[in-house]
Automatic annotation (TrEMBL):
SUPFAM superfamilies: CheY-like (SSF52172), Homeodomain-like (SSF46689), P-loop containing nucleoside triphosphate hydrolases (SSF52540)
Protein name: DNA-binding transcriptional regulator NtrC
Localisation per UniProt entry: Cytoplasm
Lineage: Bacteria, Pseudomonadati, Pseudomonadota, Alphaproteobacteria, Sphingomonadales
PANTHER family associated with the record: DNA-BINDING TRANSCRIPTIONAL REGULATOR NTRC, TRANSCRIPTIONAL REGULATORY PROTEIN
Matching Pfam families: AAA_lid_14 (PF25601), HTH_8 (PF02954), Response_reg (PF00072), Sigma54_activat (PF00158)
Protein encoded by which gene: ntrC
Function: Member of the two-component regulatory system NtrB/NtrC, which controls expression of the nitrogen-regulated (ntr) genes in response to nitrogen limitation. Phosphorylated NtrC binds directly to DNA and stimulates the formation of open promoter-sigma54-RNA polymerase complexes.
Annotated InterPro entries: AAA+_ATPase, AAA_lid_NorR, CheY-like_superfamily, Homeodomain-like_sf, HTH_Fis, P-loop_NTPase, Sig_transdc_resp-reg_receiver, Sigma_54_int
Native organism: Parasphingorhabdus litoris
Amino acid sequence: MAVDSCKSVGDRDALLASGKYDLLVTDVGLGEEDGIATLDVVKARDPDLPIIVISAQNTLNTAVRASETGAFEYFPKPFDLDELVEVVRQAMKPRSSELQAENLEEDNLPLVGRSPAMQDVYRMIARLLRNDLSVLILGESGTGKELVAEAIHTLGHRKAGPFIPINMAAIPTDLIEAELFGHEKGAFTGAVNSAAGKFEQAQGGTLFLDEIGDMPMHAQTRLLRALQSGEINRVGGKGLIKLDVRIIAATNQDFLNLIEQGKFREDLYYRINVVPIELPPLRDRASDVPALANHFLNLAVSEGLPKKVLTNEGMELLSRHSWRGNVRELKNLIYRLVVTAREEELSETAVRQIIQSEHSDEHDDHTLAGFSDRVRAVIGDLMADKDQANSLYVRALEKFERPMLEEVLRKANGNQIKAANMLGINRNTLRKKLTEYGIDPSQSR
């Protein structure tokens, strides 16, 4: 196999004009020219020529642009050479492009960061733009699961249609089917008019089922039937409605554990988990913190807040923080800094004060050691009950979750928004937990 190389777009096009090549491997940067922006010329001459794009511009923008030109694969630098060789072998079978490149501005994209952990996410998103495969987004609270769902929708072939999100944890159990599938007038008490559900509202677009792990079993059964048949009928209705909807679901829970506990249907899990995307926690992508912080500072300005700049020392402190609440916690902290700091430059001292104010309940080493002893004692008591040996995790969580919620609410003076921010969880999730434990937030004021 003969291999030729070139350093400019002009040299590349001159070589390709011979028509003797079976594959093109191109960098985005070719001298002062954009290797992706000029690929339309290549595709116009030879639509079936497979193209592999490599780049040091490791952004979602680059991955999407490469995908939309019909590139066979995209490799962010640094990459595994053996993997590239394997992909070259696969790419020798030609394929046709389906979409043309678009000029996407990086500032308009929903995801920020160039860490290796995010590169896999970008590459997977790029592979999903031209199909309707069901997607399951996994990750801790605050990692940006809805942003990924929005990216798949707004950058994909369904972007002209609606993006309809629905939070399963925020809907009362007895109303969830009506919310999803709609209802006819008189179908239940209070149904004074007919109404379209989220499925109908999402026709031609994407339905995002957030926190799907909290969905009750009766609604899971009906959802499975809808996904299998491609049709729904409203609550109290008789006519079937044909669906034209892409399904993207998300959860921060362990699905296999839910299935083992009988809380989630295994067949529904496999129906929605066609393509999984796992979002890394912010602590595993610390190199992205500066880009995210600057992004949120610019976002604050666009929302009418004063312009602020982080000093190098302030940025380093942010990068070292553990970020238990992930990207959401970072965004909230940046906004508090912008609002509360008097100086335009956000110093290390200003950052530390905000972090300490949010984590003032952290204990010193002696207290933590005592807490660990107490945990071991409680676990020992729970393990003594041999009849419930297989539910240790759930029972231990119940032992510690209630007092934790009560203490955080007390420190937040009963303010659920502040408590949710301190915990690094969604407010709807907090409200659900308070209901489960019968905790009245007003008693903490």
